[in-house]
Amino acid sequence: MSQQRPEGYLALPSTGQGDPVLVLHAWWGLNETIKGLCQRLADAGFVALALDLYHGKIARTIPEAEALGGALDANFQQARAEIAEAAAFLSRCAGSSGRGLAVVAFSLGAYYAVDLSANAPDQVDSVVLFYGYGDSDLSNARAAYLGHFAELDEYEPAEDVAAFEEAVKRAGRPVTFYRYSGAKHWFFEPDRPEYNPEAANLAWERTLEFLKRDR
């Protein structure tokens, strides 16, 4: 690929080509967990790019993450522009299938994933949300949505998740949200004490099935 790529972590399948997946990290930043996810996506045949929204900074504690996440949201328009550039880059790197962009996003990143799907409807055809959602107007969206949510989530109240799910349905978009019994926020991330292997493995299987549908 000759195009200059955005700041982040790019993982390619063995063929060098594949359907594009943009990964938007949680408020921890572009850590080894997110890089590992990109490698797993590449192993499954996708071109995966995790955008570094923090530009090299990584949080290891909740106060650090709150500070970095707050600073990002305070520069919301800049973050949106960087995400749009990454989406355009990945669209150029797409394989021969002609499929649009998929976005896999975690917590903080989920808000930006929903925003991208609402504002770049011609680019985004799949959105996978891990314990996060957004509040964008989806009336012009063309994506299908898959969500993985924890039963015991102190950050994402169940009623708010249900309200967002209904909003997606009202917009006429395909949506499937799963709730994982006994799981907590960050249940998918193996470097977190909330990691739940059973829920994480099931969520991964469902994610791959969703991303590979109709290929």
How many DSSP E strands?
7
Radius of gyration: 16 Å
State the share of residues found in helices, binned by percent. Answer: 25-40%
Specify the number of helices: 6
- Characterize the quaternary organization of these chains: single chain
What share of the residues does DSSP label as strand, in percent?
15-25%
H/E series: EEHEHHEHEEHEH
Largest sheet: 7 strands, mixed
**CA-to-CA gap between the ends?**
23 Å
List keywords for this structure.
7 strands; 22% strand; single chain; 7-stranded mixed sheet; alpha/beta; 215 residues
Please give a quick description of this structure.
This protein is of the alpha/beta class and 215 residues long. It has helices spanning 32-43, 62-74, 76-92, 108-119, 158-170, 197-211, and strands spanning 8-11, 19-24, 46-51, 101-106, 124-130, 144-152, 175-184.
Description of the molecule:
With 215 residues, this protein is an alpha/beta fold. It is 38% helix and 22% strand. The chain contains six helices and seven strands. The chain has a seven-stranded mixed beta sheet with strand order 1-3-2-4-5-6-7, sandwiched between helices. It is globular and about 40 Å long. The mean pLDDT is 93.
Secondary structure layout plus pairing:
Elements: E1 8-11, E2 19-24, H1 32-43, E3 46-51, H2 62-74, H3 76-92, E4 101-106, H4 108-119, E5 124-130, E6 144-152, H5 158-170, E7 175-184, H6 197-211
Parallel strand pairs: 2-3, 2-4, 4-5, 5-6, 6-7
Antiparallel strand pairs: 1-3
